[in-house]
Amino acid sequence: MTTRDKLVQAAATLLDRGGEQAVTLRAVGHAAGLSHNAPYKHFRNRDALLAAVATADLATLTRAFADIRSSTQSPGDKLLAALTSLVTFSRKRQARYRLVFSAPALARHDPDLQAQSTACLGQIMIMVEDCKKAGELPDVPTKGLASLFLATMHGLVTMEANGMLQREKGLPTVEENIAMLASLLSR
After folding, report:
1. CA gap 86, 126 in Å, rounded
2. How many domains does the chain have?
3. Rounded CA gap, 16 and 20, in Å?
């Protein structure tokens, strides 16, 4: 593992433990077991380090989506599995989920993050296209369908995180809502 990789991992761990405010370049150097100046040799500023964390997480998600795509499941089940993996990521890594999906300024200034974001979204769009070809989704623009699924999923994840989507109130889970959307669209 390179020094840069150690720093990115340390920043990710700090994000998981204390949110974005816990990530300072000095704290990351210390958490990585390096000098407090080490991050400054690899990242021009904190935003560049956070962009590297987001890029790494998107690369992991992109690989997971590619693995799902290569499975023997039906196209619709593959799409639901990919969306479910995003929901799982949002629950396990709340601060990193917000960083990846709610920090557009980072992506505007980081070409690696832009490219990885495009690749990740591309995997979802391929799954949507496969669903359309299999007759599991309507023949409407792929980008629109992918956006609909992702926006719905992100909205539901936000509602759940804010305590507004509670099972004890009789409300369906995020996964149940996404499956319902897929079912409605497949008719």
Report:
1. 16
2. 2
3. 9
Tens of pLDDT, residues 127-169:
999 999 999 999 999 999 999 999 999 999 999 999 888 888 8
The two three-digit tokens of residue 93, written as one number: 């890594």
Query: If we measure between CA atoms, which residue out of 73, 61, 62, 59 comes closest to residue 131?
Result: 73
Token representation of residue 148: 């609909």
CA-closest candidate to residue 80, choices 137, 122, 155: 137
pTM exceeds 0.85, yes or no: yes
* Rounded distance between C-alpha atoms, residue 182 and residue 176, angstroms: 10
Tell me the three-class secondary structure of 113-159, residue by residue. Answer: HHHHHHHHHHHHHHHHHHHHHCCCCCCCCHHHHHHHHHHHHHHHHHH
Amino acid sitting at position 23: V
Closest CA to 89 of 54, 50, 127: 54
The reply to whether 32 and 118 lie within a common domain is no
Length of the chain: 187
Which CATH number do you get for residue 5? 1.10.10
Which amino acid belongs to residue 79? L
Per-residue pLDDT at 175: 93
CA pair distance 88, 13, nearest whole angstrom: 17
Residue 81 shares a structural domain with residue 162: yes
